[in-house]
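Bumping with the actual sequence this time:
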Amino acid sequence: MLDGIKLEDHPLRSGPATLGVMLAGTDCQHRAVCEGCARPIADRFLMRVNDSSWHEECLQCAVCQQPLTTSCYFRERKLYCKHDYQQ
């Protein structure tokens, strides 16, 4: 379901950008907080974009609110689909 996700970064941003899926194990000392909604992530899986954690349902385009399921673009701490990023 989440295998094909990748992050494409703005060329002016420094440092590498990564997106991944992590299994939230029971050995975690604290729960991650979602960058999108600021609530703790209690799901079995969480999404990681750069150094931020997201609920799967919160990972959506800042303009059109479409789910970001195959790629996402990052600018000024916001995520975009390819179409809206190019606008």
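The tokens above came from a reply further down the thread. The longest strand covers residues 19-23.
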